[in-house]
């Protein structure tokens, strides 16, 4: 996504070329839509982590050491926390770092905010791509109608 933009005059293109441009734009739009969904999913996971840290902070203040430990998605066992002041934070690619609750909260809050900003930027790009697709479709429709109108006159 460099800052350079290539401008194409759609009126000068043949219908086959317009169809190819539309196909390319549709592929880009699909890729961007998938990326948007993945970013949104990542943001939701960080929000869940943030909620867990906040819950742990409240529980630490209540001096409760009892927790449920997930063994699978549906199986939990009762456990005891040995240290109420720290949590393990996944910083990516499977690396875990022990952080104080406040530092973990800030880490996850920064991640949620950063992904929110990326989502806004990507949403603007998606809207521009959708507008481009609509413009190409409109010109293609006009060219096809003009070609169909010209055929009876030739016969």
TrEMBL record:
InterPro entries for this protein: PFD_alpha_archaea, Prefoldin, Prefoldin_subunit_alpha
Keywords of this entry: Coiled coil
Coiled coil: 112-139
Cited NCBIfam families: prefoldin subunit alpha (TIGR00293)
Similarity comment: family membership: Belongs to the prefoldin subunit alpha family.
Record-given protein name: Prefoldin subunit 5
Protein encoded by which gene: g3243
